[in-house]
Amino acid sequence: MKKTVASLALTLLASTSAFATGFTNGGFDSGDLTGWTGGGGTWFGSPVSPVDPTTYNGGTPNNTIMSGGLDPFTGANRVYGGTNSVRVNDSINDDSVSTLRQSVTNYTENNIYFAWNAVLEASHGLTDSDYFSLTLTDDTAHSTIISRSYSSAGSIGAGTSGVSWTNYSGWFSSGWVVENIDVLALGAFGHDFTLTLLASDCPYGGHAGYVYMDGFGSETPPIGSVPEPASLALFGLGAAGLALARRRKNATLV
User: I need a labelling partner for 3 at 20 to 30 A (CA). Which of 19, 104, 128, 188 fits?
Assistant: First the structure.
């Protein structure tokens, strides 16, 4: 009887482990975009923001692995930690739009971390400037956890607080911002998640927008440089969330 119970327990554990997954290539340190899906296209005319990333599914992406160095307009490190990051879109103002997306099923880690740094060239108004958006959705609960959307003319919609933008001679930058999602506090342990980024030029071919992303996973991204004040503030909130998660975990174990 004991052998039967033990065998059943091991079978269940193996089954659970087989379906529990994490993010693939979150630091891009494999030197490619394995695990990620990109899309792209162009943006013309007089649009209404925010740009919908699903419009560009199946299109040709403009996403590039970055291996260190400094951004030419802001002087910030192009990699937050480790050896590589990804740049979504680029600094060429040619009406281009690029997206990057990854989904994970049955996520069984306590936290989700990632870092991003958007660079937008000063342009027109809220609905027709170069543009950046980021969403993290809980696909199991059909809810949006993070929704950030900005044009070079200002922020659009909710979820844009806590980020300070700096003007570098006509190029606005968020600096490196670290996001920390406390999965346990959300009651989302074991849920499915999708992260989607979009970066675009303005629709007239005159101004460019792009974003760097790094360190998408369950562990705090290693700091490759001293983050800007906005990044430090958000990271401090994230650390507090992690401490709370650990206390809850310890309480459960007791």
Answer: 19
